[in-house]
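Lab channel / #folding
Pinned by the channel admin:
"Please post every new chain as: sequence first, then the structure tokens as a reply. Keep commentary short and put observations after the output so the thread stays searchable."

First post following the new format, from NK:
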Amino acid sequence: MKKCLTIALVAHDRRKADMVEWAVFNADFLSKHHLVCTGTTGKLIQGAYAEKGITAVITRMNSGPLGGDAEIAAMVVRKEVDLAVFLIDDLNAQPHEADIMMLLRQCRIHNIPIACNRYSADLMITSPLWDDENYRPTVPQYIEFHR
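Reply from TO:
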């Protein structure tokens, strides 16, 4: 596996505080990697990191409703993302639902791990597989199964 990962961080408005708190809590791990965020989420994480003196490489895309989710989905398709954390607001409708579903679908199709809550994100970033030089994820097979 790669030593420096590209990690996408996306959070809906009502989950942004949770994402910032998670990103600060896990700054020791995250700051060693390249973070790609939707616009406002990235701005908030940059601000929180600056406040705490944390240095990290953060690339900000457009905000989600302005195409940021789609930009990150395109990166997934191009194999430019190694892990995604997407804290979704499941209690409120989103105007850009199609882009959200596209990002989730592309992660599944291209075998990119995606965490949609803090617990799964914690499990993913602490996996020893990130440090295993011999580990290679299998390529998904989309073939018809016959009994």
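NK: The chain is about 40% helix and 15% strand.
TO: also worth noting, The mean pLDDT is 94.
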